[in-house]
Amino acid sequence: MKKQNRGSSFFPPLWRKVSRSDERGERFAQSPLPVLRTTFPHKGGRKIAAIAALVFLFVTPALAQTTADVGRFAGPDRTARLIAGAKKEGTLTLYSSAPLEVMGAVGAAFTRKYGVKVDLWRSASEQILQRVLTEARGGRFAADVMETAGPDIEAANREKLLQAVTLPVTAELMPEAVAPGRPWIVSRLSVFTIAYNTNLVRAADAPKTYEDLADPKWKGRLAIEADDNNWLMAMAGALGEQKTTALFRDIVAKNGISVRKGHSLMANLVVSGEVPVAITAYVDEVSQLKKAGAPIDTVFAAPTIAMPTAVAAFARAAHPHAAVLFMDFLLSEEGQKILAAHNVVPSNLKVQRLPVKLTLMDVPKYLDENARWVRLYRDIFIARGR
What we know:
Blueprint: H1 20-23, H2 45-63, H3 67-70, H4 78-89, E1 91-96, H5 100-114, E2 117-122, H6 125-137, E3 145-149, H7 150-158, E4 162-163, E5 185-197, E6 222-225, H8 229-239, H9 241-255, E7 258-260, H10 263-272, E8 277-282, H11 283-291, E9 296-299, E10 304-314, H12 320-331, H13 333-341, E11 345-346, E12 358-360, H14 363-382
Parallel strand pairs: 1-2, 1-3, 6-7, 6-8, 10-12
Antiparallel strand pairs: 3-10, 4-10, 5-8, 5-9, 5-10, 5-11
Helix pairs in contact: 4-12, 6-7, 7-14, 8-9, 8-14
């Protein structure tokens, strides 16, 4: 008797025996391609199997696009394709270090516009990085987008967790916001400024340059935040390390300096008058207090240093269309106006309205040299401060 053709396995990566656990989805949950369960008990089985293989090869990628695939979308239908894909995905998971009211407002506007829910987890930048690394080591990729401080997002990048995407909106951003081969894009800035109490210091008498801080009239009236070693590194990059360290050693030796922990605390101490002048205040915090009627103002001394906060999509985002669409929205004029309305300095030049040129911190350099600048900062300000 002629033996019946029971079909054939083809292209082994696409074919394997189905077990009972497969029926419950336990064994093939991680498979990038659907599992074939059909045998072909006839002579044309091989031909049908080959055709089925081709169908899976061409159809499956379209059904399971990655962040890399979506990030390459281009052409006049790009946004329409992103919106259609995001609506099918239905949701987006975002990890952000922005104040809850700020990123909550951005997320709400995004949801109103596109009908895609934003699941926001807000925490400090260091804790966001720790969570991302812990989840990745456990094989869990919960977040679609990360928006946090430059050093922490660069650390995630060095772990190969982020995916570069092409966004037309980057043409509207400050040139330093984007770098070739770098997956994160600057979304907002923490700008350092000299802040002073307007009841204690007249505008005409306020220090206009860092060199002015060496004047004896500022003796016992200066303060600095405890951990602004990134600011010191950027200052040294702009002015030269020898000049920078000599300048601030001289200021501390002549006038002393009070070291305070936390920029918000320091800004409020300026308002209270306990700290007449703070030399590393954040402009957004000062602006918020000033708008509320507090006696505080700023001086943009050159170089004006800015620490970047950036946004990036995860390479293994579960909702890649929503991730890229959200990045588009956050960096657009519409999204950046929401940041600006909350006194946040945006990176989009259509919205950013600062009277000075900014010098951005070199994030990779800081990550590589962090320990050195922590030691130098402590030696100049903390060990010798009052």
